Amino acid sequence: MLKEQLKGNTMFVDKIDSWQEAIRKGAQPLLEKNLIEEAYIEAMIQNVLDNGNYIILLPQVAMPHARPEYGSKGIGITFLHLNEAVLFPGKEPVNVLFTLASDSPDGHLELIANLGELLSDEELYQKVIKVNSEQALLDLIKE
Predict the structure, then answer these.
(1) pTM of the entire structure?
(2) Which of 17, 44, 69, 112 could form a disulfide with 64 if both were Cys (CB 3.0 to 4.6 A apart)?
(3) pLDDT digits (tens, 9 = 90+) for 35-74
C-alpha cells in the first residue's frame, strides 16, 4: 500500500525556510488530490505547536498528521526530501517528511505499518534519508 500511495507523491527540495512551510509543502499533493482541506494543514502545524515534536519518528524523519475531523477526506501519504534540514522546535533537524492523511481513526494503520517496516530496518532508514529520486525511494519499499 505504501508504494502505491507514494507514486507521484514525492518531492525533492533543496531548502525550505521553516518547519511550517515544510509541512505545507509536504501536504500539497494531498490538497491537490482533494484528500485534505486547507484546515488539515493548519491542524498539522497546530499539533506541533501544541504537542511538540512527537511527529519526529526518528532522527531526521517526521510524519506530520492531524485528526481526520480537521479536514481529511481520504487516505494518503506524501514524501518530501530536503537536502538541507529544516529545524523543528528545539532545533531538531528534519530532512524527510512523510505527510499522512486519513479519513478515519484507523484508516491509515496499514500505511503506518508499512512505513514502520521500512524505517525499522537501519540500512533502509539510512537510504531513505539519502534518497534522491522517486524511483530510488520506491525501490526501497517492499510490495
Answers:
(1) 0.94
(2) 44
(3) 999 999 999 999 999 999 999 999 999 999 999 999 999 9
Cβ atoms 20, 41 nearer than 8 A = no
Question: Exposure pattern of 28-51 as b/e (b: 16+ CB <10 Å)?
Answer: bbbbeeebbeeebbbbbbebbeee
What top-level class would CATH report for the domain 2-140? alpha beta
The letter for the amino acid at 40 is: Y
For the question of residue 65 being annotated catalytic, the response is yes
Q: Catalytic one among 10, 24, 56, 65? A: 65
The residue extents of the domains of the chain are 2-140
Q: Which long-range contacts (CB under 8 A, 24 or more apart) does 115-120 make?
A: 115/2, 115/63, 115/77, 117/142, 118/2, 118/142, 119/57, 119/58, 119/61
Residue 95: CB atoms within 10 A of its CB come to 19
Tell me the sheet residues that pair with 12.
Answer: 81
